[in-house]
Design goal:
The complex is a heterodimer of chains A (about 190) and B (about 80). With about 190 residues, chain A is of the alpha/beta class. Chain A has five helices and eight strands, in the order E-H-E-H-E-H-E-H-E-E-H-E-E. The longest helix of chain A has 21 residues. The two termini of chain A are about 20 Å apart. The radius of gyration of chain B is 13 Å and the shape is globular. In chain B, a hairpin with a 2-residue loop joins strand 1 and strand 2. The chains are: A alpha/beta (about 190), B alpha+beta (about 80). At the A-B interface, strand 5, strand 6 and strand 8 of A face strand 3 and strand 4 of B. Chain B: This is MoaD/ThiS family protein.
Chain lengths: ~190, ~80
C-alpha cells in the first residue's frame, strides 16, 4: 500500500504523523519550505526550518519515529500529476488551494484512484473529511481569500487531522470510505457504513 | 420529517424540521437563521443573529442510513490551511 499525502502543511503533516502505524509506504509531496511560523500549527520542529516540507517530514519520521517514508519536494501540476500520483494506492488531499484540489480530483477520477480530501474553513471553526466521489470544491467568496496561518486554529486542525487519519486507517484496514464534519465540539460522521 | 444540521461559529446542532415541499438552498439559510433567533436549535440560541449570517454557507443534502433526509448548513472549506 502506497499512500501519497499531497500537501504536508497544517493538515497533511499532522495527519501523516498519525498514520505512522500503518503497514504502508507514506509519501509526501510539497514544494514549500518550513518557516518559523509553521512550527505553531504544523508537525515540524525547529531544526526543520528552512528545509523543504516533504523532505523535513521524511527526516523527522525517520529520526524521531524510525519510520521510513519518501518525499517529493515539487509542486503538483498538470504535467507531473500522473508521474507523481500514478503509483499511489491512496491519495490524501491536504492542499491549501482550490486549483490543486481540483487537479488532483480530476486525476483521481480519470485514473480510478481512491482520494480523500481534508479541509478547514478560513475562520478555523469547521472542517471536512470527504471522499472524492462526494467532493465538490466550495467556491471562494473573494479572490485570494485568506487561509489560516500561525497557531490560531491548532485545536481544530488537530481534530481534523486526527479525523482524516482515522478515515485513512479505516480505508486501509477495512476498505470503507467515511466522511465527517468536524468542529470544535464534535466530529459528525456524514456518510459511509 | 427532515433533520437540519447547522454548524455556526464552531458549534453544531441538529434540529428536526417539517418540510412539506422541496426547499431551496436560500430557503434553508433563511429557515436556519429564524430557528436560531427563535431559540429552536439546542445549544445555538443567538437572538441577534443577522439575516445574512448564512449568506456564504453551503447546503449539503444526504440520505441517512434509514433513508431519512439530512440537510447540512455549513461554512465553506475552500482552501484548507497553510
Amino acid at each position: 500500500m502506497r499512500i501519497l499525502f499531497c500537501g504536508v502543511g497544517a493538515i497533511g503533516s499532522q495527519a501523516a504523523v498519525l498514520c505512522r502505524n500503518l503497514e504502508a509506504t507514506l509519501v509526501f509531496i510539497d514544494f514549500d519550505r518550513v518557516e518559523s511560523k509553521n512550527l505553531l500549527a504544523q508537525a515540524y520542529v525547529k531544526p526543520s526550518v528552512g528545509k523543504n516540507k516533504a523532505e523535513a517530514l521524511k527526516l523527522q519520521l525517520l529520526n524521531l519515529h524510525g519510520v521510513k517514508t519518501e518525499s517529493f519536494g515539487v509542486r503538483v501540476t498538470r504535467d507531473n500529476v500522473a508521474a507523481l500520483c500514478g503509483g499511489a494506492d491512496l491519495l490524501v488531499d491536504c492542499f491549501d488551494n482550490q486549483d490543486s484540489r481540483q487537479l488532483l480530483s480530476e486525476f483521481a477520477r480519470g485514473a480510478g484512484k481512491p482520494l480523500v480530501h481534508g479541509a478547514v474553513s478560513a475562520d478555523g471553526t469547521f472542517g471536512l473529511v470527504r471522499w472524492d466521489e462526494r467532493f465538490v470544491p466550495d467556491a471562494e467568496d473573494t479572490a485570494g481569500q485568506a487561509t489560516c496561518e500561525g497557531g490560531a486554529h491548532l485545536p481544530l486542525l488537530g481534530l481534523l487531522a486526527a479525523t482524516l487519519a482515522r478515515s485513512v486507517q479505516d480505508f486501509v484496514k477495512q476498505g470503507v470510505r467515511r466522511d465527517a464534519l468536524v468542529n470544535l465540539s464534535s466530529v459528525v460522521p456524514t456518510s459511509g457504513p | 420529517m427532515a433533520t437540519l444540521n447547522i454548524t455556526y461559529d464552531g458549534m453544531s446542532a441538529d434540529v428536526p424540521v417539517e418540510l412539506d415541499r422541496p426547499v431551496s438552498d436560500s430557503d434553508v439559510r433563511r429557515i436556519a437563521a429564524e430557528l436560531i433567533r427563535a431559540g429552536g436549535v439546542p445549544g445555538l440560541h443567538l437572538a441577534h443573529l443577522r439575516d445574512d449570517a448564512f449568506q456564504h454557507f453551503v447546503v449539503d443534502r444526504f440520505r441517512g442510513a434509514r433513508g431519512d433526509e439530512r440537510i447540512y448548513l455549513r461554512p465553506k472549506v475552500p482552501f484548507g490551511a497553510r
